[in-house]
């Protein structure tokens, strides 16, 4: 489910039901009016199931993402909930595990993927608003992590630091956290934060909470990280 930032709309999704092999995948997405507690309308996405969805900071856009069986990203206009664009990795070498909107810039978000990939995305709108495209820049988990693990990583959670519009944290299935500068699309630093998969992250001012697959919660002080890296220091740390 996803709640709009102005708390007027709730979105929920149902799993697709395929009656026979010739049927097209159709997952139903329901738009609810919070004030009246009634369904406003429903839309459909051609995926097995919706694994994540969220509104942009200004509530102009809604993103829905299919699960690993068909990792299709769909961008909707909340003006009338029309489908603006669809995007999927053409190589099928990776799928999307998580995503996060930039809380300061309504047209930016990042995708945490499998196969060591993070994708930095920008919605590009033409002046006449008749054409929208998605600019995607790929980042790779530092080779030092892969060499240490001798395995590829999956990014399992990602979140922007509230104090900076350019810093995003990504966690992995092997307990590492990486910090990225979205201006240069490079990893500034990383640390081993848990011995298990980190599947949850949340931030408040200068604080980070991580939750791992074995139920361990950790509270981190990120003031030094945010103050130093947020000032434009993009040196290799």
Total DSSP helices: 2
Weakly predicted, low-confidence segments: 233-237
In percent, how helical is the residue content? Answer: under 10%
Distance between the termini: 38 Å
CATH superfamily of the largest domain: YVTN repeat-like/Quinoprotein amine dehydrogenase
How many strands appear in the DSSP assignment? 19
Describe this structure in words.
- The protein has 237 residues and is mainly beta.
- The chain has two domains: 1-16 and 25-88, Beta Barrel (Thrombin, subunit H), CATH 2.40.10; 103-237, YVTN repeat-like/Quinoprotein amine dehydrogenase (Methylamine Dehydrogenase, Chain H, 7 Propeller), CATH 2.130.10.10.
- It is 6% helix and 50% strand.
- It contains two helices and 19 strands.
- Strands 1-2-3-4 form a four-stranded antiparallel β-sheet, with no helix packed on it.
- Strand 18 (207-212) and strand 19 form a beta hairpin.
- The longest helix is centred in the middle third of the chain and has 7 residues, at 143-149.
- The chain is globular.
- Residues 233-237 have low confidence and may be disordered.
């Amino acid at each position: 489910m996803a709640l709009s930032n102005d708390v007027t709309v709730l979105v929920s999704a149902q799993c697709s039901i395929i009656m026979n092999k010739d049927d097209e995948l159709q997952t139903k997405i329901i738009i609810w009016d919070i004030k009246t507690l009634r369904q406003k309308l429903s839309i459909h996405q051609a995926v097995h199931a919706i694994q994540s969805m969220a509104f942009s900071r200004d509530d102009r856009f809604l993103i829905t993402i299919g699960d690993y069986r068909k990792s299709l990203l769909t961008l909707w206009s909340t003006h009338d909930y029309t489908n603006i664009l669809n995007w999927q990795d053409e190589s099928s070498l990776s799928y999307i595990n998580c995503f996060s909107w930039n809380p300061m810039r309504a047209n930016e978000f990042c995708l945490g993927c499998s196969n060591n990939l993070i994708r930095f995305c920008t919605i590009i709108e033409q002046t006449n608003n008749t054409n929208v495209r998605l600019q995607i820049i790929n980042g790779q988990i530092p080779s030092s992590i892969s060499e240490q693990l001798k395995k590829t990583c999956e990014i399992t959670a990602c979140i922007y630091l509230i104090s900076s519009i350019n810093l995003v944290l990504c966690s992995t299935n092997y307990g590492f956290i990486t910090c990225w500068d979205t201006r240069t699309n490079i990893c500034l630093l990383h640390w081993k934060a848990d011995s298990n998969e980190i599947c949850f992250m949340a931030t408040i001012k200068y604080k980070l909470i991580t939750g791992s697959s074995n139920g361990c919660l950790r509270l981190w002080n990120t003031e030094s990280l945010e103050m130093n890296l947020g000032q434009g220091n993009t040196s290799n740390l």
